[in-house]
Design goal:
Number of helices: 2
Helix content: under 10%
Protein name: DUF3108 domain-containing protein
Shape: globular
InterPro entries: DUF3108
Radius of gyration: 18 Å
Order of helices and strands: EHEEEEEEEEHEEEEEEE
Largest sheet: 16 strands, mixed
Pfam families: DUF3108
Strand content: over 45%
Distance between the termini: 24 Å
Structural class: mainly beta
Number of strands: 16
C-alpha cells in the first residue's frame, strides 16, 4: 500500500480551545466491539505515561500553549482489579495571565476487560468551575451521574446504558486494543460515547495507514482515523478531526488535528515512558521523546 509522508505544523485559533482539544485527544472512539463482554489488553500497562503539547496560531506566529499528561496506575476499585487512568491538562505559566486552565480527568476501568467503573472530571477554566461524575452499573444497565457547575445545586440523573458506553478517557485505552485489520479503508465504525450527561451514537471512519515523519528523520507508520464529532461550542460537527495512532502493539496516539469554529488545532505527543512492548514496536525504547518537524 502506498503511503504519504506528513509534515507537521501547528495551528490553533484560541488558547482555551487548545486545551479542551488536548483533553479529548483520548476520546476519539468507542467501537462496536464494546457491545461484547470486553477486550483483552495488550497495548498498555501500569506505569505508562504520555505527555502531549498543544499549539495555536495567532496570525503567522506559532506558539506552544500548554500540555496534557496521561498516566496509568494499578489501583483496585471496590475490591475489583482495576486501572486508574488520569489525564491532567494545564496552560503554560506564560499564558495563565491570559486564560488559566487546570483540568483533571480520571477513571477506573476493569483491568480484565477494560470496561469503565467510574469517571470523574474536574474543570477549572478561567472563572468557570465544574465537576462531572459517572458510575457504571452493568447489572442494571445504567449510568448514574452527579454534576455540579459553579455554586449551583448538585444535579443527579440516571442514564440507560444498554449497549455499554464509555467515558472520554477509558474509551481511548479500550480502542488501542482493537484489531483494526478487520476494517476496510473508509469504513464507518459505530461508536457510543458518554459526553456531558448524554449518550451519543456516533462513528469513526478508518482511513488506512499513513507515515508521520519526525525532525530527526525517523518515520512512524500510523493508523489514521476521522471521528464523527458532536456539534457544540468547539466543533462544527462532522468529520473535522484526524488522529494518527502508532501501528504497533503499543498503539500510542501520536498526533491529532482538527478544524474548529475558527481555524484549526493540533496536539502532538511530546514524551512517553513505561510502554508495554518493545517487540514489533515503532518505539526503540520504552521511554523517550519525539521531535516533530
Amino acid at each position: 500500500m502506498k503511503t504519504k509522508l506528513v509534515r507537521l505544523t501547528f495551528n490553533i485559533p484560541d488558547l482555551k480551545y487548545a486545551f479542551i482539544f488536548l483533553l479529548i485527544i483520548c476520546s476519539f472512539t468507542q467501537l462496536k466491539s464494546q457491545e461484547q463482554a470486553g477486550i483483552e489488553n495488550f497495548a498498555f500497562q501500569s506505569g505508562e505515561k504520555l505527555t502531549y503539547r498543544g499549539y495555536y496560531n495567532w496570525g503567522f506566529i506559532w506558539v506552544a500553549a500548554g500540555e496534557v499528561k496521561l498516566e496509568v496506575k494499578d489501583e483496585a476499585y471496590s475490591n475489583k482489579p482495576a486501572y486508574k487512568i488520569e489525564a491532567e491538562g494545564k496552560t503554560l505559566k506564560a499564558f495563565d495571565w491570559f486564560f488559566k486552565l487546570r483540568d483533571t480527568l480520571s477513571c477506573y476501568v476493569d483491568s480484565t476487560n477494560l470496561k469503565p467503573f467510574y469517571f470523574d472530571r474536574k474543570t477549572h477554566e478561567g472563572d468557570y468551575i465544574a465537576r462531572h461524575q459517572y458510575w457504571f452499573d452493568y447489572e442494571k444497565n445504567q449510568v448514574y451521574s452527579e454534576i455540579r457547575k459553579r455554586q449551583k445545586p448538585i444535579k443527579k440523573d440516571t442514564l440507560e446504558n444498554m449497549n455499554i458506553s464509555s467515558d472520554i478517557v477509558s474509551v481511548a485505552y479500550f480502542t488501542r486494543n482493537l484489531d483494526f485489520s478487520k476494517y476496510k479503508k473508509r469504513e464507518k465504525i459505530p461508536l457510543r460515547m458518554l459526553i456531558d450527561n448524554e449518550i451519543h451514537n456516533l462513528y469513526i471512519r478508518y482511513k488506512g495507514i499513513e507515515k508521520v515523519k519526525l525532525k530527526n528523520g525517523e518515520v512512524y507508520e500510523c493508523l489514521k482515523f476521522s471521528p464523527m464529532l458532536v456539534k457544540g461550542n468547539l466543533f462544527k460537527g462532522g468529520e473535522d478531526m484526524t488522529i494518527w495512532v502508532s501501528n504497533d502493539r503499543n498503539r500510542v496516539p501520536i498526533m491529532v488535528e482538527a478544524k474548529v469554529l475558527i481555524g484549526s488545532v493540533k496536539g502532538l505527543l511530546d514524551s512517553y515512558e513505561g510502554l508495554r512492548s518493545t517487540r514489533e514496536s515503532l518505539f526503540k525504547k520504552k521511554s523517550g521523546r519525539l521531535e516533530f518537524e
